[in-house]
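Box 3.1. Reading complex inputs
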Amino acid sequence: MRDSIVLYLNGKRHELRGEPCFATVSDFLRYEKNLRGTKVVCAEGDCGACTVLVARLTGDSLGPYEPINSCISFVYLADRSHLITVEGLRGSSEALHPAQKAMIECNGAQCGYCTPGFVCSLAGLTDSTKSENKGLSEKRVKNALTGNLCRCTGYEAIIKAGCSIPLDAAPKLSSLYDDSLIARDLRQLSGSVEILSNEQSVFLPETADQAVQYINRYPDTRVISGSTDLGVLSNKGKLKLKRLMNLNALRESYEIKEEPDYWNVGAKASLTRIEKALEKDFSEFSKYLNVFASPQIKNAASLAGNIINASPIADSIPFLRVAESELVLKSIQGERMVNINSFIQGGYKKLDLRPGELLIRIRIPKTSARFKLFKVSIRKDLDISTVTFAARYSISKGVIQTFSLAFGGVGPSVLRMSKLEQMAVGQKLEANLFKAMAKMLKQEITPLSDVRGSADYRHQLCHNLLLKFYDEVARQFEPDAELSI
Amino acid sequence: MSIGQDLPHDSSRGHVTGESIFIDDRLEVAGEVFVGVVGSPIASGELLSIDSKAALAHPACLGVYTARDFVGKHWGSIVHDQPFLVETKINYMQEAVCLVVSSGRETLEEIKSLVRLETKSAVGVFSITDAKKAQTIIARAQKPFVQGNADLALKKAPHRLRGVFVCGGQEHFYLESQAAIAYPLENGQLEVHSSSQHPSETQRVVAEALGLPLHHVVCVVKRMGGAFGGKESQGAPIAAYAALAAAKLKRPARIAITKDQDMMLTGKRHPFENEYEVGFDERGKILAFKVLIQSDGGAYADLSSSILERAMFHVDGAYSLENVWIDGVCYRTNNTPHTAFRGFGGPQGNMTIEAVIEEIAQHLKMDASEVRRINLYRDERNLTPYGNRVENNMLPAIYDRLMATSDYQKRYQEIEAENLKRTGRVRGISITATKFGIAFTSRFLNQANALVNLHLDATVQVSTGATEMGQGVNTKIQQIVAHEFGIESTRVQIMPTSTEKNHNTSPTAASSGADINGAAARNAALQIKCRLIALARKKFSGELCTPLAEYELSSIELGQLPVEVDPDFVFEGGDVLQKSTGHKITLKELITIAYQNRISLGAYAFYKTPDLGFDKTKVEGRAFNYFTQGMAVSEVSIDEYTGEMKILRSDILMDLGRPLNPGIDRGQVVGGFVQGAGWVTTENLFYDQERNLISHSPTTYKIPNIQDTPRDLRVDFIENLENDRNVHGSKAVGEPPLLLGTSVWTAVKHALRYRSKGPTVNISSPATGEVILNELTRLKGV
């Protein structure tokens, strides 16, 4: 067992013990290493000013360089990885990275405070675009920069900069420093780590057995995944993190595997990878993950974290509920599989998670039924939902054969609407049916008024989303069908 | 030479490499301490006691300071009515109550949480409606703007409408939150580094707070990470907090508040509720317009009275109004003290008339662009309600060209047809204008001074009162000075703004930064140039300088203002050339000669904008130097199920005279437009019952992100070589384009028309998804 965190920063090795391991990555960069190019604005992963690039040791080599929000990540989460900050993008040469040059030439920087974050996101985009053998389209640039806010430019110049980066001239980030040497060093380190300080501890197990033994021994353990939520709560003083466990060193937890009847998604698989992997069988969900969150968040966050956090506005849960996903929970007694619909027990954050249990995998059954997912938020991208909608349905000869429906943001948990489902199954696909269901809906949900919308607005949204669902489905069969709205 | 060129921002290399230094990036020096602000837990009431025992017992705590620790108790840009810290009366939620000082950054929040406040709540005033009832007033217009007879014309008008235009506030959301570091010098003197648009005011506020004479305080501003007006006045008390700790402890003191606290503590763009009556004929010609402009000034006066005035100055928009009555009042409430924000009341005034025109068009079942066309300021009717003439008026030309290049008519017809089909989406299109008055309406602020130092290697250092907040003012001044000396702009360095080099500076505000500071810097450069020319003339004519005699310059040759530069001499490519003789010398050589002949290579110069003067009590005189004009056409599409809106296309055409730097100016135009579009769509300030601001971070307060920009954005400048009222024929650009964001909101208003079963579309701003869906539901009568 190792008692230190080892990471590389702009090509240089750092080994840390105790207290400093619990700092946020951005504090570590700014105040330990005096790398003050990385800025902190919101300290909650919502503006991207703190964006840095991270490549983790995956298998025997370093994985791709992906942008993350350093303000809500912790040093211990960067164990066995290589961080590149805005100061490190030039490698050992004086020549600017093409992303930096493009930002200068296109007037992409005004006040400069968001610029390092944008530059890092663009450098990451350059790398991933090169490795996928694609070109830099406006759409691709915009998607890559969804997690970076700029208040000065109105983005036009930044988009132009992104599109003008000469991919051929751009060095691979892995070539800026000696990545094979870094990987060789990191490979030699034992995977499991335990770090102790006066107030906090964190355990990084290398096997699932170690993990469940640890939480069995210490029931107060908090499992921290990508820290995209716990990092925020900790930064804002709403939560003191004490005994922590993280599965970054658990290789199998990154797996996304296709089986004949279902997909197995490991607890640490990032949403970015899930979005790509599930495109084939769950294209609607993949598309939906596109507006789920920023690239920085999706590179860190996991489905397991979204499920266990159990927010009533968790964006993945409505889909997982109508998809009848199964959760694999492991404890020292063994594994147990439970349907997410019984795992979520209604009531605010009430889950069928027993002491000593760890969510290690999510199973999403393949289906011939279709999905429709809607997310309504104040801003289309990079926003928390006001209301979410998920439906799984099959229709044959104009009759609804199966119908599953879930809403988020309108009750203490994400709700399955069983009454409405029963109303629909076996009925003809007709506007009147959905109008009746929309009316019925009012009694089934209990939305609150808050910063994202009033209760009345949420009622109206749910009502309308049901009709929108009907109209879109009806028009698949009959393009000129009369709209219900 | 470098004027009008697309040179990159002078800090861009530092920005993209992370080397640019902002306040909190400055390395801590030995003994530096950290200052935090404890805010009030109530919005209105009394402070009964502050219990700081537990905080002081914390090993890292070096002090807890209260109102008593300040020598000067109040500050304010216009009226000194805002206490540095609450004395007894609490006037808004999170108002600064006391300061804590910590020896470490990481313990600051913990120490803050140890301070116990005992307070007693009182009923507060939180809306314009409540303030009207309570008659809590910050300022009234000294005299209404009146032209013709609005009452009579209203009576006679064939059509009349009345209503209230309501718009919300806006958080600046500069990325760098308020910050300052104060370094104690000897004899009680202080050097304060601040993220401020107004170093001289910061100098004054700090001095008054500590009871120091002004010459013992220097304020330095290298750059700001965005400001947008939010650091015009409200950076100063923050600097005073750091200064107090520095003075008390004789240690450098740093304050860098968090984004959350910044959003809760500082003022925003003013919410307005403008009551209007309008009379018009069947062609949409406005015959009479009466408007009472009402703003929510928040808890303290700040700049509210000037902002109210600017709203009144801009409620005519781009339209000539024959019979008009404009009055204004700013109310005092228990909200954050609202402050300057890009546009400074102009947007709230301008948007009112654009909203009214949209309603006239709906009433007459007309295309609103036609209503706009027939009401536009034209040369034969160019008198504003406050007596300024709209000279060099580009509005009709901008209108004609933009209507053509945006293909407005064709798209309007397509939208009309498309909206008849039911697709679940409804579209709208709208053209709106900006005619922004350039000059501070307080005449004394229209002055600037500059210091230019020429060095022996023919590089130049320039210091002015302009502060760089990203807008590129430094680059423009760099270009202006480089142009005069005929050198590359990289040979000119703009130095950090400092009150020891430039005195009594005006805030970098009112879009005037490059106008006045650029002109002052040019004047300084011209003086040196004048000397160099005189010197070159002597040299070229064979006059000798010997160990016994040196070149002597007369007082005129030394560059007394106004400077007349001999056009026979050209500074170009690092050389100085006399055209008539063909003599040539390198600038560097000439500088060396000047130095050896004891001719000064530095100059200090002054500039004041000519011909200004406006008498508020009589409503006469010249309020503005000129107008920056432009128009935008925006098209939006609305999801009828959810109220979600997207901007399909925006076309913008601006008149910027001869742009000093088209690349930087384009960035200002697009940035302003998108910021304006955010204000009128997604940026919603949400308070709970107790008046806690709930939208206090980007998770809950939604400024536009990259996906919210128009899918198709086309920006162009119209040629205008006729503006002789500003440096190099350019026009100010900072604020005017923000007003064009309004076109997105009016396009929404237009779209909603198609789903109305009768009622006039009536939406407030911002038109969030919720506002749009509610209105759709109302209009459909379901």
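In summary: Chain A has four domains: 5-89+176-245, 98-170, 257-365, 370-477.
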